[in-house]
Amino acid sequence: MRVGPSQDEIRRQNLGALLRYVHLHGATTRAELTNVLGLNRSTIGALTADLAAAGLVTEGAPKETGRAGRPSLVVRPESERIFAYAYSIEVDRLRAARVGLGGAVLDRRELDRPRGLTAAEAAPLLAGVVKEMRQALPNGAVCVGAGIAVCGMVRRDDGLVRLGPATGWVDEPIGAALGAELGVDVPVSVGNVADVAAFAEHARGTAAGCDNVIYLYGDVGVGAGIIAGGRRLTGHGGYSGEVGHMVVVRDGARCECGNRGCWETEIGEHGLLRAAGRSDARGREALLEVFDAADRGDARAQTAVRQAGDWLGFGVANLVNIFNPEMVIFGGTMRDLYLAAAAQVRSRLNSNGLPACLEHVRLRTPTLGTDAPLIGAAELAFDRLLADPLDVG
Amino acid sequence: MRVGPSQDEIRRQNLGALLRYVHLHGATTRAELTNVLGLNRSTIGALTADLAAAGLVTEGAPKETGRAGRPSLVVRPESERIFAYAYSIEVDRLRAARVGLGGAVLDRRELDRPRGLTAAEAAPLLAGVVKEMRQALPNGAVCVGAGIAVCGMVRRDDGLVRLGPATGWVDEPIGAALGAELGVDVPVSVGNVADVAAFAEHARGTAAGCDNVIYLYGDVGVGAGIIAGGRRLTGHGGYSGEVGHMVVVRDGARCECGNRGCWETEIGEHGLLRAAGRSDARGREALLEVFDAADRGDARAQTAVRQAGDWLGFGVANLVNIFNPEMVIFGGTMRDLYLAAAAQVRSRLNSNGLPACLEHVRLRTPTLGTDAPLIGAAELAFDRLLADPLDVG
């Protein structure tokens, strides 16, 4: 049962709300904070003082406004000092970043990931990258946590990677492995890459302010991060959003999951390359070559891309009827496919979607681009801080 | 931004939490309320006194416990006095009920609905039924609102029925029409029948305590009410859950929505009757005859039922991969189909569902049976009361 919170809980909530606001919106005047948070001036002053004492924000004079009267002080997140480590484990790449409070990527590194690399092999590689980043740390910098975006199904309770069909991972405790390599007392959160990218675009990207969003992410396979009623949809165990394994062709092509006719066999990397007559190729470069060839008029590539675009619209229409979202975002290889076949996507969506479900839906590509998984992974780490700012600091 | 609530908001929250608890769990001792709500005894006493003064609860001695010491007073919802009107508009039936605070159906009436009956024709019929129920009202009874469950897509903002393919309704303001016929100052809420039935089963039925639930409801078509993360999924406009229009057969049979190959063409009334060679029949009785015939060994009926059961499992597997629910409930005609073909449903679900998504999912029939839409419609009305108990009373 939900009951009223205690005074101490209210203070924590208010501290979190203020810090979250400047984390998402950047430097903000006290006057604006008073306004948007619905708290009085003295409360804002006290909360800001607490956060400043903990080293999470600074206060200072605003830039010259040209207006008369005493200007309101500006509250800024400590973007250089407070940071999280973020990792993105993709089929062909390993990426790591240091992301400051406020969402800026302060340092960014990338490695190729040979297909077949295990979690045990990935952890020391990523830890090595972190070691390099640490050498470039400014004085007084404080790490508040780490987040990992993984191409796979992640158990909500403990971050175990249950299954990554495209990486071949089964029951990999990558969070614990990486935490051990980091060798410090940093909490590590793990999330599915599509969920995490959706979180980032919802927090500070193209879906900011949208309560019902589907973020479709393609790497080799396809998954979705879903925001419903303003909150991340996780499902019971954390595995929701496996839209790539919605079967669209009964007894269709064999999928990496072992089933047949999954949506990703039509729109994922393997299906598209096979349809374009390039079954021996793989990776995003090979996909981009198919889109280029289609663009140059290669008939087989054009047919493959249009067909895949039609299937993309087909599945999106099903999801639009099921979720009634206000926005669908195409990320990763789904972005490339959407941009190459937008006419087919829209046409199939319009013919299969119910009119009421379609009427406010916008199709978008990510604002945060390929940084979305990293920024989302960092948001997982910041979420702990924002829930109780003075507990970390 | 979420900030801390005021003292007055906290009191309203606490009043709502206490009243919701006894509404859902029935007579409860003060000691248990203190425990489950996490409030101290004097606060519980004050809240109970306020609710009793408003006529929403009564307090009294418990039944003899046989234990020593002063027994804790028992708080009961005013189930006979405080009530809501509930309506369910189905393809072949109109139903109305008076439901008491606490969820008991106090009075229940039913009419046949000729297919083709318009909203303008339905409203006076239902109002007539209410007039009869009013004559049987006990002294001092107070109506706190009305709720309507409709077989169709309902706009969240104002309850407009945008489209009911099976009823032929388009943009029908049934809430306003019925409100006008009721001729009183009673707020009327409207919801899709599957959403409302899911709400009821989640509040006080088989899904109580489950945070991630799919309630599949079949009448002529098929829809779902979805609970995700403990909350009702509505989508942007209120139209989510149109799972019957998930396309499962590209270029399949024509659906009432105008599209082809929608899931409901395989598992809905028309598809099943057609497959059983009874295209001229319709209604639930005709469906039950097919299930009976299959049970008696009629080969064509058996094939039709098994095939439909396989398709039922096929779509449920897609939804399980998308939502990772802990429970799927089969209501309306989906209950009949599930019970007739459970082996096919489970077999297809197990072969198409991802193992991690399947591992905790339970398949269930509704505890509240055919009352679920009525009880859910009443819950829509009670929800307003529970949000701010002293505003109604």
UniProtKB/TrEMBL annotation, chains A, B:
Pfam families: ROK (PF00480)
Gene3D superfamilies in alphabetical order: 3.30.420.40, Winged helix-like DNA-binding domain superfamily/Winged helix DNA-binding domain (1.10.10.10)
Domain of life of the native organism: Bacteria
CDD domains listed in its UniProt record: ASKHA_ATPase_ROK_BsXylR-like
Assigned protein family: Belongs to the ROK (NagC/XylR) family.
PANTHER family: BIFUNCTIONAL UDP-N-ACETYLGLUCOSAMINE 2-EPIMERASE_N-ACETYLMANNOSAMINE KINASE (PTHR18964:SF149), ROK (REPRESSOR, ORF, KINASE) FAMILY (PTHR18964)
Name assigned to this protein: ROK family transcriptional regulator
